């Protein structure tokens, strides 16, 4: 009698385990579909190996996560509580919760550039609250609909695989699929080891894309076997910047502006936020955004605004009182009210194409001015960068997705309004906001390297100390260094060095 009961118990457990594997394969397909959004959140790889690595990692890593979830939940329940109807119901609920959480993580990553984590909870809540309050009915319908669709899929997969278990077990699909996923798993780690050793950033930049991704690197293994150039590796992975004797090398030859468009641009810089607010109240046609990211050091912010470059180049250019490369008689500039930059003026204020003014709330705009930007210098003394309001007559600028830097204002003025796009692209690191692709950028202030990706800002001082902060809220984010992204950002910062 006992033996018979034990056999019946074992039979149920065996059937549930077989069903669990098929149910897991169904969920792997769902997870692969959801995780496609991660691949479209960032710019795609540009090399064949980068594309291959993205494909095999997407297949193997998402499958691995799904299988581990099964092993930690359904598998032990099937052994200690082998009652098919209850197990299948609980499995459907667990899988719905897991897939819904993955969908939420994908949404957060697509918008903010980082995964769900406790340190970024305020910004995540702000994102979700903004989405809910902007269109509550539609958001509720979409969110509820997604969860219900996932739950319906889980119930269908659970019941179908159970009722057709004998027939499905005869198929060899699961065996072939398992072999393919194992091959992809081995390939992804092998390619990453090779890319990490050979500094293939097109591959290693994908390290933080998928959730719970901790790619295997083999620095110590390869070094132990004399297969790694330690000096080259450490040099590429060293995020310190040598700021001593930085030279500026002007691009040559300078592009010609064949289609120059006569236009006037006033950029008003206020010393206080209250003065800016009072000015904006007088000029109600100005559009507003809160996405201006600027150094709190005023001279660094003004340098970036005038030259379209980070303050990394400030010593080299200001010591010699070198005019911005982009300016000429037709692309003229006038800076008034800032003594440190009085040498910049190439023409009188009224005749300048671009006028940068130390403004107050009573400042008057030029008659017939085409475009206006207005912002106040940062008043935060305990930080390196600060997000602040920007007003503009150009509604397209204020609707720009992501952060805007002072260097982008001059790049947009020269590249878009004066129609000298090639010159702006060649001589500045600022971005023409009409052609902005992606939400990444670099800056430099007070000896600190600044790189941002969506809402995450990474600050690295000259000693190599770093921290990640939220651009919108300013709180710290507990996340490690994204080495490939930072290496590319440093390379961009040093575009105009020898």
UniProtKB/TrEMBL annotation:
<keyword id="KW-1133">Transmembrane helix</keyword>
<keyword id="KW-0472">Membrane</keyword>
<protein>
    <submittedName>
        <fullName>DUF3413 domain-containing protein</fullName>
    </submittedName>
</protein>
<feature type="transmembrane region" description="Helical">
    <location>
        <begin position="173"/>
        <end position="195"/>
    </location>
</feature>
<feature type="transmembrane region" description="Helical">
    <location>
        <begin position="21"/>
        <end position="41"/>
    </location>
</feature>
<feature type="transmembrane region" description="Helical">
    <location>
        <begin position="61"/>
        <end position="83"/>
    </location>
</feature>
<feature type="transmembrane region" description="Helical">
    <location>
        <begin position="90"/>
        <end position="110"/>
    </location>
</feature>
<keyword id="KW-0812">Transmembrane</keyword>
<feature type="transmembrane region" description="Helical">
    <location>
        <begin position="137"/>
        <end position="161"/>
    </location>
</feature>
<dbReference type="Pfam" id="PF11893">
    <property type="entry name" value="DUF3413"/>
</dbReference>
<dbReference type="InterPro" id="IPR024588">
    <property type="entry name" value="YejM_N"/>
</dbReference>
<feature type="domain" description="Inner membrane protein YejM N-terminal">
    <location>
        <begin position="7"/>
        <end position="248"/>
    </location>
</feature>
């Amino acid at each position: 009698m006992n033996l018979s009961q034990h056999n019946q118990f074992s039979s149920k457990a065996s059937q549930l385990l077989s069903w669990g594997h098929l149910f897991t394969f169904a969920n792997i397909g769902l997870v692969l579909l959801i995780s496609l959004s991660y691949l479209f959140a960032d710019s795609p790889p540009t090399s064949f190996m980068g594309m291959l690595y993205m494909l095999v990692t997407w297949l193997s890593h998402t499958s691995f996560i799904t299988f581990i979830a099964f092993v930690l939940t359904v598998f032990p329940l099937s052994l200690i509580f082998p009652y098919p109807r209850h197990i299948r119901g609980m499995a459907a609920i667990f899988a719905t919760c897991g897939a819904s959480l993955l969908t939420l993580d994908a949404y957060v990553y697509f918008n903010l550039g980082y995964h769900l984590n406790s340190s970024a909870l305020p910004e995540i809540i702000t994102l979700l609250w903004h989405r809910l309050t902007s269109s509550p009915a539609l958001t509720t319908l979409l969110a509820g609909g997604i969860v219900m669709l996932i739950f319906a899929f889980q119930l269908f997969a659970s019941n179908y695989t159970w009722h057709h278990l004998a027939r499905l077990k005869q198929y060899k699909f699961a065996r072939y699929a398992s072999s393919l996923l194992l091959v992809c798993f081995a390939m992804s780690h092998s390619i990453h080891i090779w890319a990490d050793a050979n500094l293939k950033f097109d591959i290693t930049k994908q390290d933080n894309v998928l959730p719970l991704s901790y790619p295997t690197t083999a620095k110590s293994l390869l070094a132990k076997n004399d297969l790694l150039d330690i000096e080259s590796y450490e040099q590429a992975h060293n995020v310190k910047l040598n700021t001593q004797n930085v030279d500026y090398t002007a691009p040559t030859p300078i592009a010609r502006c064949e289609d120059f468009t006569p236009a006037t641009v006033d950029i008003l810089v206020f010393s206080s936020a209250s003065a800016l607010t009072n000015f904006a109240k007088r000029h109600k046609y100005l559009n507003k955004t809160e996405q201006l990211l600027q150094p709190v050091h005023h001279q660094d912010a003004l340098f970036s605004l005038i030259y379209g470059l980070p303050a990394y180049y400030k010593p080299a250019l200001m010591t010699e009182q070198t005019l911005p490369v982009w300016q000429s008689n037709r692309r003229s500039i006038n800076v008034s009210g800032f003594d440190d930059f009085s040498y910049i003026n190439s023409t009188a204020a009224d005749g300048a194409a671009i006028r940068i003014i130390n403004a107050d709330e009573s400042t008057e705009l030029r008659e017939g001015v085409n475009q206006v930007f207005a912002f106040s210098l940062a008043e935060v003394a305990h930080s390196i960068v600060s997000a602040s309001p920007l007003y503009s007559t150009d509604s397209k600028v204020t609707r720009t997705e992501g952060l805007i830097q002072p260097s982008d204002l001059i790049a947009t003025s020269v590249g878009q309004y004066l129609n000298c796009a090639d010159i702006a692209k060649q001589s500045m690191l600022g971005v023409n906001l009409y052609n902005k692709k992606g939400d990444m950028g670099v800056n430099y202030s007070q000896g600190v390297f600044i790189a941002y990706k969506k809402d995450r800002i990474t600050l690295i001082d000259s000693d190599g100390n770093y921290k990640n902060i939220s651009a919108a809220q300013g709180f710290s984010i507990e996340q490690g260094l994204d080495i490939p992204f930072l290496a590319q950002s440093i390379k961009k910062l040093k575009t105009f060095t020898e």
